[in-house]
Write a structure and sequence with these properties.
It contains twelve helices and 17 strands. By secondary structure, the chain is α/β, with parallel strands linked by helices. Strand 9 and strand 10 form a beta hairpin. Helix 1 crosses helix 5 and helix 11 packs parallel to helix 12. The structure holds threonylcarbamoyladenylate and magnesium ion.
């Protein structure tokens, strides 16, 4: 399939590109488009056959349901059998924005979207291009992140192109996504709403509106819990190189581990704060085997750059990636969730003065510190 690449420019030509993209979607084809979180792979959300093409393009397991994207609050009504007070309060506080609500689904939602569940996930994105596209289509757009299943989600159109060229009808380039991590998913069908996936709308923001909110225990990476968002159980966001996440005290050992690994002749990728990168500047000068991926200052900047940096490591392919953990407050909860998954839960921590690794044996270069 030939894939069209259309750059949106914020001028009058955009309307024409939007109607061409909408025509593809109305004809049952798949179009990649920008949102404020990550790029999405969109199809007519009420057409089961069109939705099946999304799964094929991504190589996505079909027991993993999709989010329906709408461009007006009232457009959720035909998709659900009813909304409770919690759902209404969240819509009022955070829509449009990076929050997805799981609600009881109505008859018109195809099984291909909900993967056979009785519920459906709905989101009203704030990105103007996404809103224009949904409006031009006149239907809810089913859209997962626009990556090949398992890879980090794309946050710019070039990364979408890399994964989807030849597999979808068109890619709409609307520049970089501001938030950089997928939306927060909240199950509103429980008496106390549950965060199934953390994102840009944080735990703190949700509790301010709702009072009590739970976090799906499966997010801690405890294998004894089955995640309620089917997508959270898959290996995800994973760079091709082996990655270790250094949490808490262990983050301070990063420079030592880097030296040890370099001494073994390894090419080492490091995902870290600018401060840590500066501390490694001298090592970097003496070794071209050290690949630094600093994220800069705050957690928001890390969130916005994380997937880009992980995808960049797939180009440079170090032997090992060491990532510095961050605090879990605010968007840090979502960042740590994605980093733990990217690392395949190879989490390094310090307990009683000893370095330990969850999920496997410590590599040789972590034995000396
Ligand atoms: O920010 C986002 O949400 C992006 C952009 C494109 O909008 N979309 C996205 O979609 O991240 P996807 O398919 O990559 O992730 C959807 C997540 C999956 O973990 C899925 O299992 C969960 O939402 N989900 C969807 N429907 C659900 C349902 N009915 N119950 C529980 N979890 C559900
Ligand atoms: Mg995804």
């Amino acid at each position: 399939m030939q894939t069209c690449y259309w750059k949106l420019q914020n001028n009058e030509q955009d309307a024409e590109l939007m109607s061409k993209a909408a025509a593809f979607i109305q004809a049952g084809e798949v179009v990649a488009f920008p949102t404020e979180t990550v790029y999405g792979l969109g199809a007519d959300g009420l057409n089961g056959e069109a939705v099946a093409k999304i799964f094929a393009a991504k190589g996505r397991p079909n027991d993993n349901p999709l989010i329906l994207h709408i461009a007006d609050v009232k457009d959720i009504l035909p998709l659900t059998t009813g909304l409770n007070e919690n759902a209404k309060a969240l819509m009022e506080a955070f829509w449009p924005g990076p929050l997805t609500l799981v609600v009881n689904k109505s008859q018109i939602v195809p099984d291909a979207v909900s993967a056979g569940l009785e519920t459906v996930a709905v989101r009203f994105p704030s990105n103007k291009f996404a809103q224009q596209l949904i409006k031009a289509c006149g239907c809810p757009i089913a859209a997962p992140s626009a990556n090949i299943s398992g890879r980090p989600s794309p946050t710019n159109a070039q990364d979408v192109w890399e994964d989807m060229q030849g597999k979808v009808a068109a890619v709409l380039d609307g520049g970089e996504c501001g938030i950089g991590l997928e939306s927060t998913v909240v199950d509103t069908t429980e008496p106390v709403p549950v965060i199934l996936r953390p994102g840009g709308i944080t735990y703190e923001m949700l509790t301010e509106v709702l009072g009590a909110v739970e976090i799906d225990p499966a997010l801690q990476g405890d294998a004894s819990y089955k995640p309620k968002a089917p997508g959270m159980k898959y290996r995800h966001y994973a760079p091709k190189s082996t990655m270790y996440l250094l949490e808490g005290e262990a983050a301070r050992l990063l420079p030592q581990f880097v030296s040890n690994a370099l001494a073994e002749g390894k090419r080492v990728g490091v995902l870290c704060s600018r401060v840590t990168a500066e501390a490694l500047a001298e090592v970097k000068e003496n070794s071209h085997n050290l690949l630094l991926a600093p994220w800069g200052e705050g957690l928001e900047e890390l969130a916005a750059r994380l997937f880009y940096l992980l995808r960049d490591f797939d180009r440079s392919m170090p032997d090992v990636i060491l990532a510095e953990g961050v605090t879990e407050s605010g968007i840090g909860l979502a960042v740590m969730n994605r980093m733990r998954k990217a690392a395949g839960y190879q989490i390094v921590s310090v307990m009683n003065g000893e370095v330990s690794l969850k999920n496997g044996e410590l590599p040789f270069f972590m034995l000396k510190y």
